[in-house]
Amino acid sequence: MNCREALPWIHEYLDGTLEGPQSLELKKHLLSCPACRDLLKSMERTEGLIRTMPKPVVPDGLTSRIMGGLPQKKKKTEWLKWIQRHPAISVASVFLLVMLGSFLSLWNQDTDLVVKGSDLDQVVITGNTVIVPAGKTVNGDLMVKGGTIKVDGDLKGNLTVIDGSINLASTAHISGQIKEVDRALDWLWFQVNEIYSLATR
Amino acid sequence: MYKDKIYHLAFRMLSQSQTAEDIVQETFLRVYRNLDRYDESQKFSTWIYRIATNLCIDQLRKRKPSYSPDAEMPDGEGADWYSLLPSEEATPEDQIMLSETQLQIREAIQSLPEKYKSVVILRYLHDMSLQEIGDVLDMPVTTVKTRVHRGREFLRNKLDGDFGDKKTETF
Asked: Nearest-CA distance from A2 to chain B in Å?
């Protein structure tokens, strides 16, 4: 082994990665070569010197500076975390919100006249007015939305008027109940009841 | 405490207490922001050291004087490059009287080229294994080894001429 070959092995030795047989060979070379011996000593001294470097003093207030640099926890993120933790409730409430929204928008958009009933043959519609003519009899319930109902004849059932007005003549005869719905919430309640009665039928 | 370790690392890398504090602050901010991206298969210390060394290396590269210090900075606020130079203000280390030997060692580390500096600091001042250094700097162990060897020779030439016996320089 010559000095040129020995140098990388000296480094390996200092790294602590020199294998057994190789270290024996290096040792043999070092015993016969004072220059390499000095080189190894010199490197060990250097390593020793570097390791003696004192640790710098950490300035006071570094911790508070670090903490101050971190973003404040926002309430919004707490809220978002709650949503992430409760996906089912979140989805359900979004669904309800959308349903409510569509009901309300239906309510607002729907200004056209709507007439519902099982016996509409007897009913006369002129413009925005629904008339049960005198002498005629309507069998079953009648629902009018967005218009005026004028009853001159007989109605054998309930009358429901949504967002409209009722005009009863003295000759009118209504066997069921008269219900007037004017507000969105009542409209909603009415719809829910309708769905419920359909479902239980 | 990682805070202290990262401060020691940044202080040795940049030799400036103010910049080192900035690096520590930025490191913790990044750890906080990217906690969800932390890969649990690696050690936490490796991850935080990687963030910090990358910040230090970026800082060292930024410092390379490619402009005249008199030139106005492009931000248009009239500041010139002198304002980026290390201030004369004493760092906490300066306030303690350092022995001449320690000053020479510090100077030797400061004068190390950047790519040996990080390796040497992690190896000798943070007692990391070659494998750990490779993980932190994201480079193969063979590269780390080469850099440790070069760094070692660089420091020996700087320091042992002063402290060792002169014969060692000829072999």
From this structure: 11
